[in-house]
Amino acid sequence: MSDGPITSLNQAQHHLDAGNWQAACNDFRAALDAKETGDGWFGLSEALWWLGQFKEAVDCRERAYAKYRQQSNPAKAADVAVKLCIDYRACLGNGAASDGWLARTAQLVRAYELEPTRGWLHLLEATTSSATDGEERARVALEHARKFDDPDLELCAMSEIGAMLIKQGQIPKGVSWLDEAMAGSLGGEGRAPDTVVFTSCNMILSCAACAEFDRVLQWVAAADRFMERYGCLFLLSVCRATYGKVLIATGDWNRAEQEVDAAIGSSKGSPLYVLALAALAELRLAQGRIEEAERLLAGFEDLEPTAPVLAAVHLARGEPVVARAILRRILQTLGDNHLQSAMTSELLGQTEIALGQTKAAAARGQRLAEAGTEFHCDAVLARGERLWGKALALDGQTVESRTHLGHALGLFARMNMPLEAARTRLILADAVREHEPEVAKAEALAAASTFENLEARRDANEASSLLRALGVRSGGRGGGPRAYDKLTKREREVLACLAEGLSNPEIAGRLFISRKTVEHHVAKILAKLGVRSRAQAAAEAVRRRAAENPPQNR
């Protein structure tokens, strides 16, 4: 009988190493029923963490910590304290508890001279420091990792250095560090799979901040094999919500809603819930569902994550004075960090335009564009150029306006931001409508097509209004959109692959997306086309291609 708990623990650890989380949970619980141990509680906490049951996981970690202290095992207790410091902040949004476990980690390291753990202490301190101090502490953590041969700490420290460099505005350097950390963690250099979650979350948050959206999508696609074995790459709710915002920006709104809903579900009861809720409100606003966006924000109006979306709602409602007051408060908090405040500053410029302050808006746009050039950040540059161009157009400076708007359009297209590219096209169309009506029609038609594909109602109505003013009826389509026209850009790309007879894994490889994403797109394509099989969808694609490219008579 004495061998029972040991056997159960070994079996549970085997399931844990293999990523069989539920089986690991069952075996760890059985082992704990027989005998409570620190290893049993810690193993159960790991399995629960991967199942997204963060509150239960934290409870088990605290039990593991207590057992390790009772067993006079300060090294393992310190390792658990490190995990608790991260989990309270990243999973539960509890900064006070996180700070408490950070202090406990520091005390254990000092009291027992736990030098290998000291590097993790430096990393934890880096995550809550300013960008410059954080970079320095992360570099010290990196030195410790290499000195004590800790590949997980090395990869996490590299990732943190990248995140801190991006916060400083050193985007190319920061992205390089993030890429290297991702390559090493997905390449199996780390000993723990949650190292991939740490580096991935840093990558998603940092790349989203500087609008490196394609980089996020490509790394998520590269993690397909990891996700098949262990589960979600962006497990933490803040990362999941941010990934949802990446999908909003890149036009994959169906998948975005799935990820944001998952983030909302996993963060209920924690401060991180508001982040996920704000992301869903942002999606509803992009869809033109202003009332729904406003309802989602009700009761959370004074919180930092919701403020920019709330300001955008007021602006959409024709209340620029209210929007301006909110945006000014946000910028007072953010200061002059243009990387974090670019969208807020552009929105403030739009309120200035709505209030007839075009010269102030032009000056703001120029400052944003200059900051984008300085930071090598195309997102800031594009928003600055667009604001600058729109303000100049309203002042009658059409030639200069077209130059800036054209530059913004190219940048948004290159960053794979279809909604922002289409909005820029519409501004450009309005700017040149008097001098170049044919160009205006072409740009407005292109914008209208994108809005319809995305199902962005409010923007589509604005495009239709401009097209009518230009003498084009019904958005130039002569009726309601056909089934094919309802497909998003990505869904059309998947459909084209289906027409070639490609399998889901082959489509995933060609388009740099995961197999699960391909399955989702295929399901949406079948529903929108009203067909029952991949073969029928492929046949529809072939028929359409033939209709659009009829054979030429010789």
Percent strand equals under 5%
Second-tier CATH architecture of the domain at 1-113: Alpha Horseshoe
The portion of residues assigned to helices is: over 70%
CATH fourth-tier homologous superfamily of the domain at 1-113 = Tetratricopeptide repeat domain
Q: The biggest beta sheet, please?
A: none
What is the CATH topology of the domain at 1-113? Answer: Serine Threonine Protein Phosphatase 5, Tetratricopeptide repeat
Task: Tally the helices.
Answer: 30
Which regions are unreliable across 5 or more consecutive residues at pLDDT < 50? 474-481
What's the SSE pattern? HHHHHHHHHHHHHHHHHHHHHHHHHHHHHH
Shape descriptor reads: globular
Which structural class fits the helix and strand makeup? mainly alpha
How many beta-strand runs? 0
Distance between the termini: 89 Å
Mean pLDDT: 91
Reading off the top of the CATH hierarchy, the class of the domain at 1-113 is best stated as Mainly Alpha
Which value, in Å, is the CA radius of gyration?
A: 26 Å
Descriptive account of the structure:
By secondary structure, this protein is an all-alpha fold. Among the domains are: 1-113, Tetratricopeptide repeat domain (Serine Threonine Protein Phosphatase 5, Tetratricopeptide repeat, Alpha Horseshoe), CATH 1.25.40.10; 489-548, Orthogonal Bundle (Arc Repressor Mutant, subunit A), CATH 1.10.10.10. Helix content is 78%, strand content 0%. The longest helix is centred in the first third of the chain and has 18 residues, at 95-112. Mean pLDDT is 91; it is low at 474-481.
